Every structure is written in structure tokens, then in C-alpha cells.
Amino acid sequence: MPGRKDIVVVNTIVPGAYDALKEAFPGVDIRNALACESESPGDSRNLTRKLTNEEVALMQEADILVLNPHTLIQVMYDLPKVKWVQLTSTGAEQLLRERREDKPLPSYVVTRNISKHIGLIMAEYVVGQVICHERLWYSTMENQKHKMYDRSNKFTLYRSLSQITVGIMGVAAMGLEIARALKHFECRVHGYSKRPKEASERSPFMDDYWHGDQLPDFLSTCDYIVCVLPSTPETRGLLGKDILKHTRKSPVLINIGRGDLVSESDILKALDAGWISTAILDVFEKEPLSVESALWAHPKVVITPHVSGYGSAELRGMSLVDCFKENYRRFVKEQPLLGSLDWELGY
Q1: Can 306 be counted among the known catalytic residues?
Q2: Measuring CA to CA, how many Å separate 260 from each of 60, 74, 227, 282?
Q3: Confidence of residue 39 (pLDDT cuts 50, 70, 90)
Q4: In this predicted structure, what is the pLDDT of residue 5?
Q5: Which H, E and C letters describe 220-284, residue by residue?
Q6: Phi and psi at residue 334, to the nearest 5°
Q7: Which of 66, 148, 216, 313 has its CA 20 to 30 A from that of 329?
Q8: Rounded mean pLDDT of 92-106?
Q9: CA-based R_g, the chain, Å
Q10: Which residues have C-beta within 8 Å of that of residue 182, sequence separation ≥ 6?
Q11: Candidate list 186, 201, 287, 314, residue with the active-site label
């Protein structure tokens, strides 16, 4: 938007993000504060390194920042001019954990990356895992190793996605993209949130909505439970203890949200009790998952290394630019920004 005087400072390992933002906003003063050019692009090990004095000085001159949460933590209470921080990630629980009670809340707005592109690739993960599970593709891979050509009922009488009910825990942007993808295959889709949704907030891709203390009833309807909830005081341990005993169909649990929704011991308990039939896990209480974890060798567990919402460098850059573009349009017009962090609610 030509003519704006905003200074936008970018410090992110998302490959190509700075160049893409410069190209998308030729009339805006966008500066690169990533000092370590030799870093491997996109390498998550670079997220937590200490900022240089030069990087901090650039950030303190900015009106708008584009950062990851780990970087923001280092300067969170020392940004005198900043009005808005766009995070590169979907989650912001790191900021909430570092919030200091002896200081006032930051005056700037923090927004999470809720780009449709991230929702789409998370939906791909869910649909892919559901199809893989229903058609026993992991078993057919094992059969191939042993040259077994098995066309028994076990492999031929699989369910169509139109025959299953998928419950999605978390019905914000990511959850709705997953619901939209599933409805393409005529799944029945249920949504669960901590608070009720008004009629105007409800999506045509959700067949039923559940909330709050309706969790046991929600769980009883599901063939699959897909978790995309953020980490908040209300969601930590939400699927813990014996809550999963309320399932009736021994569903598959797919967690691509946050690992503290259910502990490792509670997952193992639910599997051994038959409350769930399989756990497909992309997130864990502690990451990386310890080599000592019993989850690695459990026959009913599928593990992926927190990659459901990543994708190619091009896609990650595109998602950040798209999210920033819409929020910058709103910022200029002094409209509410999408994906704004509520410091009190924790998401």
C-alpha cells in the first residue's frame, strides 16, 4: 500500500518470506533483521538462538514485526514502537508461558498465522491418515515385504469415508478446513469447542456442534477424534484421566494440535482399555519424543514428528504472505485483525 510510513521488520527462518513480503508490498518499508544469513533455511534448530544487538535494535524501530514466538519472547517487553506482531506460527503458547505477572500486558496486537494454506495441508494429513487406516495400507506394506498377496475380507471390505463420523476438537480456522475436506468425501462431521457457537458462527461443513460439558456425548458419536485445539489452561489434559471411556465405537485418535491435550500415560491407558483403537500422533507432551517412550513400539500407535502443518518452503512462505496481506489491509483500515491472541483466554 504505497505511501504508508510503517516500518515492517522481518526476522524469520521461513524460507523466502522476506523476499515474498517485499514483492507483495513494494511501497512499504520492509526490512530484514535476520542477521545469520549462513543459517540453514527453515531449520527449526535456529528458532531459539540468541538475537544479536543489531537485530534487537532493528526490531525496536519497527511499527510491525513478523517473527516466530521464540524470537518474540526475547524482546516481548522491550518494543516501544511496535503496534502489531504477526507470528509465523499457528500457536502462541510459548508467549503465554513467558508472560510476566510483574509487567503489564504488551500494548501491541499479536496475531497467529491462520492462513488457509496451513489448514489445507493439515486437512491433507487427516484425510490421508483416515484413508490409510481404513484401507489398512500399513498392513499391505508389511505384506509386500513378505510377498503376501492377501485379498481376504480384512482388506477388501473396508469402509468408505461416507460411512464414518469424524469429531473435530477445535472448530476455528484449521478445524473448519479439515471439516470442509472431509465433507467432500461425505463424512459426517461433528465439532467440539469449549464454548457454544452462535448460529452465525456455525459452518455448513459441520453436521453437529458440541461444547463444554457435552464432551462425553461428543466422544460417544465418533469413529475418529481429530484434535486441533491450542494449548491453553482449559485444554491441557482435556482428554486425560478416564474421559475416553465415554467412547462407544473405539475410535481412532488423531492429534495434530498440541501434545498436552492428553498425556502419554493416558493414551496408553486408553489403548489398553480399548477406549480407542489407534493413536495417530503428530504432537507430544515433550518434543522431540524420548527414545524411551513406550509409544514408539506400541502396535496401535502411528508417530509423525510434528510435521502436519509444515509443507514446502514455497507453501510456507505463501501462507505467511497471505495471512500478513489480509491483516495488513485490516491494520491500515483499523479493523480487527484475524487470529489475534487473547492474553487472558490463552489463545
Answers
A1: yes
A2: 34, 24, 11, 12
A3: very low
A4: 87
A5: HCCCEEEECCCCCCCCCCCCCCCHHHHCCCCCEEEECCCHHHCCHHHHHHHHHHCCCCEEEECCC
A6: 60, 40
A7: 313
A8: 88
A9: 22
A10: 123, 126, 127, 130, 161, 166, 189, 205
A11: 287
Whether 255 and 282 have beta carbons less than 8 Å apart is answered as yes
Q: Which residues pair with 209 in a beta bridge?
A: 191
The length of the chain in residues reads 347
What's the CA gap between 320 and 112, in Å, rounded? 10
Percentage of the chain beyond pLDDT 90 is 82
3-state class (DSSP) for residue 153: helix
CA–CA gap between residue 256 and residue 228 (Å, rounded): 6
Residue 238 cell numbers, joined: 482435556
Annotated catalytic residue, options 31, 70, 211, 306 = 306
Cβ atoms of 168 and 178 closer than 8 Å:
yes
**pLDDT in the model for residue 43:** 53
Beta-bridge partners for 226: 168, 254
Q: How far apart are CA 203 and CA 260, in angstroms?
A: 27
Beta-strand runs (E) in 206-319: 208-211, 224-227, 252-255, 278-281, 301-303
What string of DSSP letters covers 183-224? HHTT-EEEEEESSPPPGGG--TT-SEEEEGGGHHHHHHT-SE
Q: Please tell me whether the peptide bond between 204 and the residue prior to it is cis, using omega within 30 degrees of 0.
A: no
**Coil/strand/helix, residue 325:** helix
Could you tell me the three cell numbers for 114? Answer: 491462520
C-alpha separations of 232 from 194, 289, 290, 341 in Å: 11, 21, 23, 12
Mean pLDDT (whole number) for 167-184? 97
Average pLDDT value for residue range 294-315: 94
